[in-house]
Structures are given as structure tokens and as C-alpha cells.
């Protein structure tokens, strides 16, 4: 199987197509589940791309939807086969946020708001290691290193020569000032942040404390956008034990508008670099 096959995106596209076929048939997920003698939750998970879809699932659903064009059936079966392949992140074992990594790997652009820490795609190795140790104090050394390695691998999207990820990051001032690891680690991290912000496809802005109340007070979120028009944008909300993915157009639009307000209230790009540099200088003393 070609290495550029992204199983997460394949599942998502396949799920969207299966939902479209169900809606064309005028059936509810409950009705389909009853016909196939499965739970309604299974149909929902298949359609939202959060569950692997077997070729048997596709065959059964196409039967229920009375899909007569064999070319459509064959195409869906091929997508099901691709969706069961493993992405690069599977070589690291069980990754709690593997669905997000799959989406990030295929995204064209990413907008992130981080209230507490430097976003993962712009972290140094030392900062990432100290962060995981602090956030997950009962985690083994091997598990910490695995998580850090995954984070460093994800950053290849930023430094790729061809089609790098377009990244826009709004950092709350707390993320810049919070000492993670040590002052030396922070100095290196902030210097790295300034360096990465010089890339033409990377934008970093700081949201200062003096702004007061703002639309990001509810917490961190990311908006992923994709090149293929068939892939709708996704809002990602990270949780402690589970994550939330919002794909409805009205939900995505609400978060996009919030992000525009955050960008407008933040320091501009040059002011942000100067602010980060000033804080970095304080850590050198």
C-alpha cells in the first residue's frame, strides 16, 4: 500500500459518503441499524470516521441503500481497505490522540489557540519532555520518550520542503511566561519560537494579559482545513480522557469567528516577536 495513504482521512471520507447514501435513501441511522441488526451507535461511528470500516460493513450498507452502480461499490470497498492500513504514528504503539494526528498529517492549514503552553508543533525536544513529565507525573520514562518522539515527527509537516503545513498560532501570554522545565529550557524554547515564526507559512501572535476577557477563555482549540473540497473543516478540542471533534458547518464557523477576534486582539506579528524576545531575555538572567 502506498505510503501516502492516510487511514484517518480515508475513514472520514468513506463515512461522509456512506452518510450521503443513507440520506439519499431517506433513512435514519436507527432504521439502518435495525435492518442490519447492529447498534445505532455503530452506524454513527462508521459515518463520523471514528471507527474502522470493514469491506463487509460497506457491502452490507450498500445493500441496504440499494446501490446499483458497481463502480460506486468498488470505490467504497477500496476506501474501506485503505482505511484499515496503518499510518506512520502506529509504529509508536497506542497513541491517545491518533485520530487527531491523522487529520493533522493531511491538513492544509491549522489555526491554534493555546492558553497555557507552546503548541506541540513548535516545541523543542527539551520543552516537550519537561511538559509531558509535568503533565503526566505517573508516566514511565519510555512512554514519555515515545510521546516526545511522536511530537518531533509531527513537526516534519512544518519543515517539509514541499507543501508544508500552514500554521497560525495565537498564544496567551501565560504560555510564554510559564516556566516549563527550567529557565534555560524556556530561553531555548522562546528563541525557537521566534525562529519558527520567521518561516513564511508560520504565524505566531501573543495575546497579552492586558486584553482582559476574550473569546478564548473557554480553553484550547484548533481548526483544521483540508485541500480536498470533500473534506470539511474540523474543530479539535483536546480533553483529559477523550477528545471532541466538531464538523458541523455552524460549529466550525462559530470557532472561526472566535479565532478572528483572538487574532485581532493579539499583538501583531512583529510586536509578538519583540514580546517573546523580551521574555526570553528575562530567562537568561
UniProtKB/TrEMBL annotation:
It holds the Pfam family DUF5753. CDD domains: HTH_XRE. SUPFAM superfamilies: lambda repressor-like DNA-binding domains. Coiled coil: none annotated. Residues 18-72 form the HTH cro/C1-type domain. One of its GO terms (molecular function) is DNA binding. This is XRE family transcriptional regulator.
Amino acid at each position: 500500500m502506498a505510503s501516502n495513504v492516510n487511514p484517518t482521512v480515508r475513514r472520514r471520507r468513506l463515512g461522509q459518503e456512506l452518510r450521503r447514501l443513507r440520506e439519499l435513501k431517506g433513512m435514519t441511522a436507527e432504521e439502518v441499524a435495525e435492518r442490519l441488526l447492529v447498534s445505532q451507535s455503530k452506524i454513527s461511528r462508521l459515518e463520523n470516521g471514528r471507527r474502522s470500516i470493514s469491506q463487509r460493513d460497506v457491502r452490507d450498507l450498500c445493500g441496504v441503500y440499494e446501490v446499483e452502480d458497481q463502480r460506486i461499490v468498488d470505490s467504497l470497498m477500496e476506501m474501506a481497505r485503505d482505511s484499515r492500513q496503518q499510518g506512520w504514528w502506529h509504529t509508536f504503539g497506542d497513541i491517545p490522540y491518533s485520530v487527531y494526528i491523522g487529520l493533522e498529517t493531511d491538513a492544509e492549514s491549522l489555526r491554534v489557540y493555546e492558553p497555557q503552553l507552546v503548541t506541540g508543533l513548535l516545541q523543542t525536544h527539551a520543552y516537550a519532555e519537561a511538559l509531558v513529565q509535568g503533565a503526566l507525573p505517573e508516566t514511565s520514562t519510555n512512554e514519555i520518550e515515545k510521546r516526545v518522539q511522536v511530537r518531533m515527527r509531527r513537526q516534519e509537516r512544518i519543515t517539509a520542503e514541499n507543501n508544508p503545513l500552514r500554521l497560525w498560532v495565537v498564544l496567551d501570554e501565560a504560555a510564554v511566561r510559564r516556566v516549563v522545565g527550567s529557565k534555560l529550557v524556556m530561553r531555548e524554547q522562546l528563541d525557537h519560537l521566534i525562529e519558527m515564526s520567521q518561516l513564511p507559512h508560520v504565524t505566531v501572535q501573543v495575546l497579552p494579559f492586558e486584553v482582559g476577557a476574550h473569546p478564548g477563555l473557554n480553553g484550547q482549540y484548533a481548526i483544521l482545513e483540508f485541500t480536498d473540497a470533500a473534506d470539511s473543516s474540523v474543530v479539535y478540542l483536546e480533553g483529559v480522557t477523550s477528545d471532541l471533534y466538531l464538523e458541523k458547518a455552524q460549529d466550525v464557523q462559530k470557532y472561526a469567528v472566535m479565532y478572528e477576534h483572538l487574532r485581532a486582539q493579539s499583538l501583531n506579528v512583529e510586536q509578538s516577536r519583540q514580546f517573546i524576545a523580551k521574555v526570553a531575555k528575562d530567562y537568561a538572567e
